Amino acid sequence: MQKAGGIVALVAGIFAVIAAIVTLMIGGVAAGFEAENANTVVGLGWGGILFSFVTIVLGAVAMGAKSRVPGILLIFAAVAGAILGGTFVAVFMALALIGGILATIGVKKTAVQAA
Fold it and tell me: Does the model's pTM come out above 0.70?
């Protein structure tokens, strides 16, 4: 389940980058028309890009990790990305959250951890 969680997080991160770019484009067009909260939308786009890249990196690390730390960090990155990334990014961060949960519970206990 750990590898599956990492793969799910990678796919979610890639789609979240695309969603964040769309959010940036919408914010840019709104700024061009001098809409009221266009800067907020642009800020959400940049937040989405940041947490999407963090999700991609943590998804790759979680696939081969021996501990639960990358999965837990992936859960935090997914929640932060859903809050700070906007609506489009939040949809894919929900998928990344599921990947983080799978990566966290999928870590096998070794003989050293069990003792």
Answer: yes
